[in-house]
Task: structure prediction
Amino acid sequence: MKKIQYNEHAKEVLQILQKGAFLTTHADGKTNTMTIGWGYLGYAWGKPVFGVMVRHNRYTHQLLEKNGQFTVTLPKEELSKELAFCGTKSGLETDKIKACGFSLLPAQTIEVPLIACRAIQYECKVVCRTEMQSPLVDGAVKDSWYEKMPDDYHTFYFGEITACYLTE
Ligand SMILES: Cc1cc2nc3c(=O)[nH]c(=O)nc-3n(C[C@H](O)[C@H](O)[C@H](O)COP(=O)(O)O)c2cc1C
Result:
């Protein structure tokens, strides 16, 4: 494991994110991971921040509401099958971590573990969450992303980055 500055690999983080990353959560003794393709690496409230967007119908949403901590694993190895699986199956019905054969790494600063692989890893504590509000959303965005599920907006979770490092 090699510690890094939160923004040291920013370009690569955003490139990997477009292919998919693992957002892992943990509450009530259950650990779950889901694929994310959207996110933000930035600086706010005097802190380095990773922002993720999670729709209300995700099991991940339930877990994040119970425990406002999450990890983001941005894989630097070929895990496209696992990303597709974790991006289409819900942890409500499937133990995705077991099904993918993932090992978990304990985090250094939070309770939520990380997916063990060659990756850029972030540990985050939610410092702010906010709901999308229909009147504030651009019409074209609504048509493209929310037309089929008008009540299923994303919650934005902004997590203070409490640790970040590379794993092999
Ligand atoms: C490439 C990709 C990116 C995705 N990005 C997001 C995202 O940013 N936010 C989100 O809510 N769902 C996203 N999804 C969908 C969730 O990963 C999917 O609904 C998953 O089954 C939810 O799992 P859960 O119910 O265990 O939380 C994405 C799926 C894929 C395949």
Observations:
- The domain at 2-167 is CATH 2.30.110.10 (Pnp Oxidase; Chain A).
- The first helix runs from residue 10 to 19.
- The first strand starts at residue 2 and ends at 3.
- Helices lie at 10-19, 59-66, 80-86, 96-99, 139-145.
